[in-house]
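Reviewers of the previous submission asked for a worked example of the structure-prediction workflow described in the proposal, so we include one complete record here. The input consisted solely of the amino acid sequence. No template or homolog information was supplied to the procedure at any stage.
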Amino acid sequence: MVQSVELLLDAAAEAAVRAQWQALAAAGLPSQAAHTGASNRPHITAAVAAELPPAAEAALFELKFEPFPVTVGSLMVFGVKRLVLVRLVIPTRALLDLHRAVHAAIGAAPGVPEHVAPDSWTPHVTLAKRVPPERLGAAAGLVAADGDSPAEVVGIRRWDGDRRREWPVRGR
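From that input alone, the workflow returned the following structure tokens.
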């Protein structure tokens, strides 16, 4: 499965993303709202690995972290046939510095995809996965009217996909 390090958003930003999830779901479109587990919440994935060794786990808890502002921006689409609808998180120095610090902490963990590595990462918040290409316009139309919105990164959590559990690393 997957091991990830995720950046958490403030309550207002989280509510705004959840409203977009609900709008998609209410229209019968794919949406992250379909994942009803308690751990499913809007986030920015900072790192993914097949495994995080104990030294990497320990290093994550040593990260320096203070909440900082970000902007949740434009819609973007990843993929070709299995489309993922996301909101770009506009990169800032603080966001990129934290991303680098997370990757320094996890070191040479196995199974880190190249697209999440520093200098290759596109920070985003996922709205929907597996959007059929013929339904992309409808999905975008539901959430595209929302403009850029301010948010704050308020915490860092770990997600263990093997055990299906989460825990805080920093912040809330």
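The two ends are 25 Å apart (CA to CA). We consider this example representative of the routine output the project will generate in years two and three.
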